[in-house]
Design brief:
- This protein is an alpha+beta fold.
- The protein has helices at 25-40, 69-74, 124-137, 199-207, 282-289, 293-299, 346-365, 375-380, 384-391, 395-419, 460-466, 486-495, 499-502, 533-537; strands at residues 13-21, 47-51, 65-66, 91-97, 102-104, 120-121, 141-144, 148-153, 159-164, 167-169, 175-180, 184-192, 219-228, 238-244, 253-260, 264-272, 303-313, 324-325, 328-330, 479-481, 508-511, 520-523, 543-545.
- The protein is built from 14 helices and 23 strands.
- Strand 8 and strand 9 form a beta hairpin.
- It is globular.
Length: 559
């Protein structure tokens, strides 16, 4: 290969038994389970994990209240091994907010599966860092800072592994002095645990028709801040969820406040991405929510120390795609196992990673490779994950169709009926994907959001600063438009270009001359926190989120 055209150089490769994409709960649980089985049966099994964040946990963001059921199975002595899970839930509040007050719902009204007794408030990023250490002790090779950008296929069409993206490519698409060719990681099986709306997952679902016969996947955007509050206002172990204001009855979502650690409170806001008004800004709804009297008193006199955002899979039972393809499987949020009413998914992600790992181990031990891991979906259909999702399968469709008050109320009744073994005998459909739900701007009323005060409420750019987001500036934009003319020629006159509002990081702007003329669409890719909302909500599906250079994006220390 000539030195003047290094982009055509043949990539080096490494062979493994199992390649795992994503260092989140699903991927790390899969890696640990694979090596546990290998050690138990004295079988030589090589396992690697690729993580696009600068370190494991850098891109992990969740509430998070975790159900330890999967961790208990994976590492029964996690307490003795020093897992950063030490704040049990001691109090559980659910409040419906009006514009100026709130109504706390009695706990005995709530279906039993909504009870957080026995769960823990954690930093999921810290938990993943701990899981990574456990994996490495068992012999797993973990490579943070390397983004899996391409699926590799065998001649028969089965998946052979993945390739990392080339490093050191300039905005002009030409190699720089720092150019480094990507690496191929080849495996007998490849497990995809890259999280919500991952670029590789999208390709695999499309190529192998994994969503055939399934309902469209549904999503929410979760925006979170971490605060250090006045010690007199800290109630360690308190979990508080709200619905209602500032969202209208037709827009799904709600907030959470979790008190943990040393005077720390995680506060977050979720907006379901099937909202209709293109003028709605999830970020600004979150800021407005914090001004409510029920919420603001916790944070007055406190200090905001971190910020982040990510999409959440919400389709549930009827939207889970086929889990396997020739040569691998989807695990965790790549398939979508979040229990929406419980606002929990980490335990299901870990459990599915473990099930896929067990299927892959048996296959490798039997001398197989490149086929479908049929034992994994068979195990899923007999698992607590399947039961968990099936019991709540109608809550999200009821909420979407009937609004918050009636939909959630009927969803609660359905959960109670399921608890008694007499739930609805049918599964409601989601009908359409989230990007198809927007109304035209001419049919909706603009929303006048108050200016941030810099104490309780903030702007997007100061928030992105707290996420420690960084990308190599001289690289191709990883947010790719299929048609450059759509934002200004179609989205702007039809929807007032909603990308400038649904993005929680100020990535997308419509920039004009001083007199308001000559609008142009600007992408500030440097700000991207990898939430994938643009890929989900763009009404024409014109934005394709792809991985930037490995190590780019947010660097969440304890989210």
């Amino acid at each position: 290969m000539s030195e003047d055209n290094p982009a055509l150089a043949e990539r080096e490769y490494m062979d493994y038994d199992v390649v795992i994409v994503g260092g989140g709960p699903a991927g790390l649980a899969a890696a640990i389970r694979l090596r546990q089985l290998a050690i138990e049966e004295d079988f030589d099994l090589s396992v690697t994990v690729l993580e696009k964040g600068s370190e494991v946990g850098a891109h992990i963001l969740s509430g998070a209240v975790i159900d330890p059921v999967a961790l208990n199975e994976l590492i029964p002595d996690w307490k003795e091994k020093g897992a950063p899970i030490d704040t049990p839930v001691t109090d559980d509040h659910f409040v419906y907010l009006g514009p100026s007050g709130g109504l706390r719902l009695p706990n005995f009204f709530m279906p039993p599966l909504m009870n957080n007794h026995g769960n823990y408030i954690v930093s999921l990023g810290e938990v993943c860092r701990w899981l990574a250490a456990q994996a490495e002790e068992l012999g797993v090779e973990i490579y943070p800072g390397f983004a899996a950008a391409e699926i590799l296929y065998n001649e028969d069409g089965s998946v052979r592994g993945v390739a990392t993206n080339d490093m050191g490519i300039g905005k002009d698409g030409q190699p720089k002095d720092t150019f480094m060719r990507g690496m191929e990681l080849r495996g007998k099986y490849t497990l995809i645990g890259e999280g919500v709306r991952g670029s590789l997952s999208k390709e695999l679902i499309r190529k192998f028709n994994l969503d055939e016969g399934r309902e469209p996947q549904k999503f929410g955007i979760g925006i979170k801040e971490l605060w250090e509050v006045d010690p007199s206002k800290h109630k360690k172990g308190l979990v508080q969820h709200t619905m209602g204001w500032p969202l209208d009855n037709k827009t799904g979502g709600g907030s959470f406040l979790y008190h943990f650690g040393e005077n720390l409170v995680s506060v977050g806001f979720v907006v379901h991405l099937n909202y209709q008004n293109p003028y709605l800004s999830p970020f600004d709804e979150f800021q407005r929510m914090k001004t409510h009297p029920v919420i603001r008193e916790t944070f007055e006199g406190g200090r905001r120390i971190a910020y982040g955002a990510r999409a959440i899979t919400e389709g549930g039972f009827q939207s889970v795609p086929k889990l396997t393809f020739p040569g691998g499987a989807l695990i965790g949020c790549s398939a979508g196992f979040v229990n929406v009413p419980r606002i929990k998914g980490s335990h299901n992600a870990m459990a599915t990673g473990m099930m896929a790992a067990e299927a892959a181990f048996e296959a490798v031990k039997d001398g197989r490779q490149g086929d479908e891991l049929a034992a994994y979906p068979a195990a899923y259909e007999k698992s607590h994950v399947y039961k968990d999702l099936k019991r709540v399968r109608n809550v999200k469709p009821l909420w979407s169709r009937l609004g918050t008050v009636l939909g959630v109320g009927l969803g609660g009744i359905d959960m109670w009926m399921n608890q008694l073994g007499i739930g609805l005998p049918f599964t409601l459909k989601h009908k359409k994907p989230d990007h198809a739900s927007l109304k035209k701007a001419s049919e909706c009323k603009p929303i006048d959001y108050p200016k941030p005060d810099g104490k309780l409420t903030f702007d997007k750019l100061s928030s992105v600063f707290l996420s420690a987001t960084n990308h190599e500036e001289d690289q191709p934009v990883h947010l790719k438009l299929k048609d450059d003319t759509v934002p200004i020629n179609f989205n702007l006159p039809t929807y007032d270009e909603p990308a400038q509002r649904y993005c929680p990081a100020g990535v997308y702007e419509v920039v004009r001359e001083d007199d308001g003329s000559n609008p142009r669409f600007q992408i500030n890719a440097q700000n991207c926190v990898h939430c994938k909302t643009c890929d989900i909500k763009d009404p024409t599906q014109n934005i394709n989120w792809t991985v930037p250079e490995g190590g780019g994006g947010p660097n969440y220390p304890n989210m």
